[in-house]
Amino acid sequence: MDIETRELRYFVAVAEELHFGRAARRLNMAQPPLSRAIRLLERRMGVTLLERTSREVRLTTAGEVLLEEGRGALEAAAAAVRRTQRAAATTRRLVLALKPGGDAGLLRSILDRYAATPDAVPVELAFSVGERAQMVRDGRADLALLHRPQNDLTGLDCDDLHTQEQVVVLPEGHRLAGRAAVSMADLSGETLPRWPEARPGVTGYPISDTNQLMQLILLGRMVAVLPESIRDRLPPGAVCRPVTDAVPATLVIAWPRESTSRQVAAFVAASSPR
User: pTM to 2 decimals?
Assistant: First the structure.
């Protein structure tokens, strides 16, 4: 059977809100047509997606699967539209997503090498801390500079560019600041940050940008394990120490797994270490 994106959008709204009234308001429609649409979808699929009582709405196992798959399908459809529209634009360009200071000093040489390739197009830089990977997935960007293992690379292909050891950033006067080096076990009980693009399962205090992180570190509210290039950007009052057993951080160039763009392939080739 075929499912329309409209039906998926309806179901995802209900599944995320777990309330037909809120979902209807979110979709800017009346509740009765939304309820009928979901029941029709269940009949057509031959499965129960939602358990309904007078008090609550719950997802069934089948509903949980459709929620996950439906989100991906809606994102893929939106990305296809964006990429198609951008491909038809009069002026072709590549959009590279990165966070400020997140290129390990490599970007200038990468841009120069790419500009020297045949059929190179202008490269627009889109700065973001929390949405770089998602920007590539949904078609707002063609490529992104990300870090492994910190970032969620689901749905993306990538090439390694540069690997760094990691350090822990601490406020002066912290119990570990006098050490020459620390281990991950030494950080047990410390509050650590969780970035918006962290891979699934990572826990910690939600952080939206580096300035916020440094402010919290200086206030003694948390510590952070970061690539050692952060040494050059530490604010007064913060120190860093090597973490001997932390997994190294690898800067990668990432692009959509299904990409067939010659420009993307040329940029990736220009980015890769020679």
Answer: 0.68
Alpha-carbon distance values, 83 to 5, 39, 79, 250, 273 (Å): 18, 33, 6, 28, 28
The residues, any chain, with a CB within 8 Å of residue 261's CB and separated by 6 or more, are 142
Helix residue spans in the chain (DSSP H): 5-17, 20-27, 31-45, 61-87, 107-115, 132-137, 210-218, 262-271
Compute the distance between CA of residue 252 and CA of residue 127 in angstroms, rounded to an integer.
16
pLDDT of 139 reads 87
**Ranges of the chain whose pLDDT falls below 50:** none
Please compute, for residue 108, the number of CA atoms within 13 A of its CA located in the half-sphere on the CB side: 3
CA dist 106 and 41 (Å) reads: 50
b/e map 59-73, b = 16+ CB within 10 Å: beeebeebbeebeeb
Residue 58 per-residue DSSP state:
E
pLDDT of residue 202: 76
* Angstrom distance (rounded) from CA 242 to CA 179: 9
Contact 168, 241 (CB under 8 A): yes
- Cα distance from N-terminal residue to C-terminal residue, the chain: 49
For residue 164, what are the β-bridge partners? 249
Model pLDDT, residue 187: 95
What pLDDT digit, counting tens, does each position of 69-112 carry? 998 888 888 878 877 777 766 568 899 999 888 898 899 999 99
50 with 35: CB under 8 angstroms? no
Give CA 82 to chain center in angstroms. Answer: 18
Question: What phi and psi, each to the nearest 5 degrees, are found at residue 161?
Answer: -115, -40
Rg (CA), the chain: 23
Residue 47 DSSP label = S
